[in-house]
Write a structure and sequence with these properties.
With about 350 residues, the protein is α+β, with helices and mostly antiparallel strands. The protein has 2 domains: about 120 residues, Creatinase/prolidase N-terminal domain (Creatine Amidinohydrolase, Chain A, domain 1), CATH 3.40.350.10; about 220 residues, Creatinase/methionine aminopeptidase superfamily (Creatine Amidinohydrolase). The chain contains 10 helices and 19 strands. Strands 4-3-2-1-5-6 form a 6-stranded mixed sheet, sandwiched between helices. A 3-stranded antiparallel sheet has the order 7-10-11. α9 packs antiparallel against α10.
Amino acid sequence: MSRIEATWKDCGPEIDAFLVCSRENRVYLSNFTGSTGCLLIDGDKRFLLTDFRYTEQARRESPLFDIIQCSRIYEEVAKLALSWGWKRIGFEAQHVSVHEYLGVLRQYPDLRWVPLTGIVERKRQLKDNGEIENLGQAAKIAERALSLVLDWLRPGVSERSFQLALEHAMENEGAQGVSFPTIVASGPRGSMPHARPTDRLFAEDDWVTIDFGAVYDGYHSDETVTIPVTKKARSGKLPVIYDIVLKAQKAGIEALKPGVSASQVDESVRRVIIEAGFGEYFGHGTGHGVGLEVHEAPLLGPMAPGDMMIEPGMVVTIEPGIYLPEVGGVRLEDMLLVTKEGCTPLTSWDKSMTR
């Protein structure tokens, strides 16, 4: 069954046609990468609606779709609905604003607009071989880049300079771009999980948390390392914290297997940190899915639905952290592919303290 067929099957019998406008879902179903456009599908018809700027690109990237050039998407949907006798149009509820929805209801009252949630996103949780290959390539590009700029991790270099060097190296190694603005948090700034790089200079006794990722053929990588600037940094609280976080990550990786729930994986990680006395300093989830978006379903955290089960083909992160205000922090993150037996890493950076 194709991606489109599987998507349409999940829409249910109460829907006459399904409108897909989110960029990632559109790419997943049609391979169209333009910034503007929507898909409209039913049991056998495939339309791609976009404007003048992208019609040629759409024909190249999406040969299985009928390309319709238009400037007003919903107006064109209404015309197609009239032509094909559609009355009930499903749409992606999580990607349409209340303002937009109310406007559509007002303009096209003869159609019933039915909000649907997670129809395509559920399909995207399970990666096929091509997606796994792209995710692995993205991870390799990012790690090659980090190895090339590791000499920049020395006293006197700024967080911002290191960020720019790493991002430039990723693009030189073949990345289409970066998955997100690289996080470089040194010394006491490591206590901020999403600290933006500043002009702060690395010091001899600093630990530096680096959260980075590359994009390859539309797919993202996501990895975090925490590295001491010099051997002088291996004193104080952070080496102890590092060992706890590494132990917690290993527990999560061991727990990640088919048939367990996402919340159980989080519990296995969180238990290690809580038992070590640092539970209050681990305030985010254990991980998340990675694919066409750097953060996508499934969520591995205390708020994950109880029925969210781990399945073969999922690619997720395991990324515990401990963050001590005014002291610093440690986060370790790897991407893992869930297999029938357990999981296998797509990232390979050695997380032991070898520097």
